[in-house]
Design brief:
single chain; about 325 residues; alpha+beta; 7-stranded antiparallel β-sheet; disordered N terminus
Length: about 325
């Protein structure tokens, strides 16, 4: 046999499917209404990507640390003289960083206080960079959102009311948790997970996908993603790995564009790669035919590898 390097990079189709049934989610029929992430899904994502588990009775201090963690544990631009936490406190770095970003205000943190829904929502809205939008809200728009939330209009005022209203209108606060704001009890674990998940989503740090297997237009979405994607070109890197391939240092390589990374929970995902888009579409069809719903993402990649040719003779 004679080995040869594939003469051209072969454009491969790659897409990921996160199996929803593994999360005990309902297997939805084709054409079902738009689906939203559950607090449980956000919780699994937080644990998998950030090793973060929300405490059953989280405090404000806990939520500050959670928020700093999903924002990448930013460094504080300058020291802050908090009145109730010292610079040596484990919470200080997170609180100072959020203070520097305008997510926390004032110099009193109250880290031991039970986390209240209002406090969690305000921190989340600022962490999601929606505060500027909130400050444009006129009173009529604020009142309308607060009524929807079930919070008495006169119970919150000023910028707090504007921020809370924006958290409602932007979907930062899922509708199923409106009752917690009306009761003003400690925030539930589910609400805490949902708010953190929404912050990740709005900041582009959550899962990325083009749709669900059950979407009526999923074939069109996938094919459009395939036909409009570009093969990534990294000349300097490709020159190095091509040389390594020719010198038998490696037997092949894959290059993927991180902008298309699905960011799914790996243990709940299936990756399928192929150079022919029709086979990917057939797999989506197979899942639909079996009543299995899942998120779908398209990830283009380039692959080069050694190929082998058998050298023959006329009298073989």
């Amino acid at each position: 046999m004679q080995r040869s390097v594939s003469p051209a990079a072969k454009y491969m189709v790659a897409f990921l499917l996160a199996a929803a049934f593994l999360l005990n989610a309902a297997i939805l029929p084709a054409g079902a209404a738009a689906k939203t992430e559950s607090a449980a899904e956000y919780g699994i994502f937080l644990k998998d990507k950030y090793n973060l588990t929300v405490a059953p009775k989280a405090t404000k201090g806990d939520f500050i640390q959670y928020t700093a963690a999903i924002l990448g544990n930013p460094k504080a631009d300058k020291e802050v003289a908090f009145t109730d936490i010292a610079a040596a406190d484990p919470l200080y770095a997170s609180a100072a960083a959020l203070h520097g970003k305008g997510i926390l205000g004032g110099t009193t943190v109250e880290p031991k206080q039970p986390l209240k829904p209002l406090v969690a929502a305000l921190i989340s809205l600022r962490a999601a960079n929606l505060q500027e939008l909130a400050l444009t809200y006129p009173k009529e728009k604020v009142d309308k959102a607060l009524v929807k939330l079930g919070v008495p209009v006169k119970s919150v005022t000023g910028t707090t009311a504007q921020e809370l209203a924006a958290a409602v209108d932007t979907g930062l606060i899922p509708t199923e948790f409106y009752g917690e704001f009306k009761n003003n009890a400690a925030a539930s674990t589910a609400l805490t997970q949902a708010l953190l998940g929404k912050v990740l989503t709005i900041n582009g740090k959550y899962k990325q996908y083009i749709g669900y297997v059950s979407d009526a237009d999923i074939y069109s979405k996938f094919y459009t993603a395939y036909t409009t994607s570009n093969i990534i070109q990294i000349p300097k890197l490709q020159e190095v790995v091509d040389r390594a391939l020719k010198q038998d240092i490696v037997t092949g390589y894959n290059l993927k564009d991180s902008r298309f990374d699905a960011n799914f929970v790996e243990s709940l995902s299936v990756t399928y790669g192929h150079s022919n888009v029709k086979h990917a579409l057939q797999l989506i069809g197979l899942l639909r035919s079996e009543g299995i719903d899942a998120k779908v993402q398209f990830e283009p990649k380039i692959i080069r590898f050694h190929s082998y040719e058998r050298m023959g003779h006329a009298n073989d």
